[in-house]
């Protein structure tokens, strides 16, 4: 009789392979092989294919993990945390992965694979997850009069995403210090939320 599978061990092994995949894709691009991934992970090919039937399924799992982490971030926010604070904390959370040295090389890999329907679908799910989550928090911040109300919650959510995406694009371009520049990104998001960049007669409130 086979032993029952320990879900925690299975997840740990999957995350180990996912991390190795990130390294392999960053080092070798979309042409990274399963052999290279297995070597980095320190596993045999049988273990790899037990968890991921194809290399593309591994890339898909990396993207799905991003959406999962976004849902977890918003789900675990304490109810007593101000929605404005949640928005700013999310920006910090979203760009934290960009401080990983592998990020600059991995982002173009995703872009190159985006033409594949399953990859495009995963990217759309991640975008929809972020947009929906941000929209809800922005709407609550507007109800509390803690952010501007001259733009819809959805429009503000999209602009927050645009600022994060632009930041990621600069990281992918190389020569951009994500750690050093994150505080300035946060300031830009604060200006967006306060309306300073759109309405000269509105002044950011001191925090």
TrEMBL record:
<dbReference type="GO" id="GO:0000976">
    <property type="term" value="F:transcription cis-regulatory region binding"/>
</dbReference>
<feature type="DNA-binding region" description="H-T-H motif">
    <location>
        <begin position="33"/>
        <end position="52"/>
    </location>
</feature>
<dbReference type="InterPro" id="IPR023772">
    <property type="entry name" value="DNA-bd_HTH_TetR-type_CS"/>
</dbReference>
<protein>
    <submittedName>
        <fullName>Transcriptional regulator, TetR family</fullName>
    </submittedName>
</protein>
<keyword id="KW-0678">Repressor</keyword>
<feature type="domain" description="HTH tetR-type">
    <location>
        <begin position="11"/>
        <end position="70"/>
    </location>
</feature>
<dbReference type="InterPro" id="IPR039538">
    <property type="entry name" value="BetI_C"/>
</dbReference>
<dbReference type="Pfam" id="PF13977">
    <property type="entry name" value="TetR_C_6"/>
</dbReference>
<keyword id="KW-0805">Transcription regulation</keyword>
<dbReference type="InterPro" id="IPR001647">
    <property type="entry name" value="HTH_TetR"/>
</dbReference>
<dbReference type="Pfam" id="PF00440">
    <property type="entry name" value="TetR_N"/>
</dbReference>
<dbReference type="InterPro" id="IPR009057">
    <property type="entry name" value="Homeodomain-like_sf"/>
</dbReference>
<dbReference type="GO" id="GO:0003700">
    <property type="term" value="F:DNA-binding transcription factor activity"/>
</dbReference>
<dbReference type="InterPro" id="IPR036271">
    <property type="entry name" value="Tet_transcr_reg_TetR-rel_C_sf"/>
</dbReference>
<keyword id="KW-0804">Transcription</keyword>
<keyword id="KW-0238">DNA-binding</keyword>
<dbReference type="InterPro" id="IPR050109">
    <property type="entry name" value="HTH-type_TetR-like_transc_reg"/>
</dbReference>
């Amino acid at each position: 009789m086979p032993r029952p599978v320990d879900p925690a061990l299975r997840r740990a092994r999957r995350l180990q392979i996912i991390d190795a995949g990130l390294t392999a894709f960053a080092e070798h691009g979309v042409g990274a092989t399963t052999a290279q991934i297995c070597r980095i992970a320190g596993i045999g090919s049988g273990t790899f294919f037990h968890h991921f039937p194809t290399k593309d399924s591994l890339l898909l799992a990396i993207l799905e993990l991003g959406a999962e982490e976004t849902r977890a971030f918003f789900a675990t926010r304490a109810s007593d945390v101000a929605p404005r604070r949640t928005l700013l904390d999310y920006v910090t959370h979203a760009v934290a992965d960009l401080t990983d040295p592998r990020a600059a090389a991995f982002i173009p890999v995703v872009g190159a694979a985006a033409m594949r329907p399953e990859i495009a679908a995963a990217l759309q799910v991640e975008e929809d997850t972020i947009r929906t989550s941000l929209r809800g928090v922005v709407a609550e911040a507007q109800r509390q009069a803690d952010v501007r109300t001259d733009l819809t919650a959805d429009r503000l959510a999209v602009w927050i995403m645009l600022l994060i995406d632009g930041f990621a694009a600069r990281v992918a371009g190389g020569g951009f210090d994500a750690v050093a520049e994150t505080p300035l990104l946060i300031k830009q998001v604060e200006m967006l939320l306060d309306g300073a960049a759109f309405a000269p007669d509105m002044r950011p409130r001191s925090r």
